[in-house]
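To: structure desk
From: M.T.
Subject: fold request, one chain
Message: Could you run this one when you get a chance? Sequence is below, nothing fancy, just the single chain.
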Amino acid sequence: MKKRIVTLLLCSLTPLLASPTSAERGKEVYMQICFTCHGPHLEGGIGPALTDPFWKHGSSPEAILDVIDNGIDGTEMMGYKNVYPEADRLALRDFILSEQAGIREMVRYVYPKDHFKGKRLLPELFKTIESTSSTPLPENWLYVKRNLEGVVRVTAKAYIQTPGTYRFDIRRVGRTAIYFEGKEVHYSDENSPKEEDINEKLELEAGSYSFEIFHEEKRAHSYKFYGNLVGPAGARYVLSGRSLQGSTPKVIVAGPAAKIERKWIKDLPPRAILCLLPNKVIVAFNTVDGSVVDAWHSAEIDQTPSLTDRSQQQSQIKGKNIPNSARQVFESSDPEFIAYESDQANALIHFIVDGKPTTVSIAPEGESSFTISTK
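Reply: Done. Structure tokens follow.
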């Protein structure tokens, strides 16, 4: 077999937009009921982002509609089945889908490897044997348990926003076959000459596309499959990663007493502390110069943002900014920070200022503000 580099022109059978009218109406509904929690651009806020790969409750059209209709128990996400007509709920779903880019609806299947011994990984083979497991992957990238022994099949969809040339970039380990809209577009086998590999370029229009990955490698402590779907303008959608189950975003929320946290937050000084008050106000206080850097209401601290490699990302403050909250507390330019503590609803920060012990008290005020005093 000779190496094939062929460009396939594919038009999506499933456009991102059901219709312009539906998406426009869906955006109207979103801006009425969703943006306060999920952000005006679906970037997340009090609720999770709706454009990143991690979809805890499923990323299929059916799963998204189910959440819109019935809500999620134990959360602030209510159901709208009895609030909005079906046409509006479908339009909202279509709008959310129209904003997706990347890999979605991924499911992992594992099969006994003996069935595939000495045979090329073809779709037909997987129709003649039952899988030993079937697992939806909410992260929408492939991972497996350690010491896996078997052949893996993945079904997924690629949501494309930017038309152009795409290709699969797959690490050459074990053997891998990829079928895109039913056509073989990648094949590699580390035990065969590299010249026999297949890696076809894909000319894609905006839309969603179905694809399958078949992969087999030697049993080992860790799985070595690694891949991306690479596109124009630096687009790169990961196909492999690690499980985020058990590290679903840890969120620090307000309680009956004030909480004081030190977290790595973008654009905040490294020695700033976060004072989370019982009224859900967060005040960022710089202990170096004794100043309020910023403040938010209806806020919480997300320690592990729902992004790729989330454990390596900065924590985030999710809430609504309180305008004109920054202020200098001391006239002295050289306060000496000593310690901080919570005292019921108040956050206390202790300093030595001009040789005298001084305590800054940050207290909740109303539902969305705070007061600050010194003594």
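Reply (cont.): DSSP finds five helices and 23 strands in the chain. Let me know if you need anything else for the meeting.
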